Amino acid sequence: xxxxxxxxxxxxxxxxxxxxxxxxxxxxxxxxxxxxxxxxxxxxxxxxxxxxxxxxxxxxxxxxxxxxxxxxxxxxxxxxxxxxxxxxxxxxxxxxxxxxxxxxxxxxxxxxxxxxxxxxxxxxxxxxxxxxxxxx
Length: 136
What we know:
This is Flagellar basal-body rod protein FlgC. Pfam families: Flg_bb_rod. InterPro entries: Flag_bb_rod_N (IPR001444). Residues 7-29 form the Flagellar basal body rod protein N-terminal domain. It is found in: Bacterial flagellum basal body. With 136 residues, the protein is α+β, with helices and mostly antiparallel strands. The chain has one domain. Helix content is 45%, strand content 18%. It contains two helices and four strands, in the order H-E-E-E-E-H. The strands form two sheets. A two-stranded antiparallel ribbon has the order 1-2. Helix 1 packs antiparallel against helix 2. The two termini are 21 Å apart.
């Protein structure tokens, strides 16, 4: 595999990872849990709210990119859900701090990034084929 192809594939993998993480955030945006106490502890036996994820993308020496996934620092926000069995005395529960508009934009960026890297991969293939055809 050429370096162009390996760089393009690493970009496609990063775009795929971004889409997976965004889909997880959207799918779990209503996964509420008990509101943590001031010390950050959740009552024993109570569920915790989903922690939104983020993708961290870094360059690789020699070309390409790699990704790691981590929980965001945004954490959870308090919302009213007095019917929840784990709601506090004020009827508040913790909900993931997921911004659907930002997730949608991130999904579009991942799509365009994947498409651009795929075009680079195809161009590399076409150039290699043209080179082989010229030498034959």
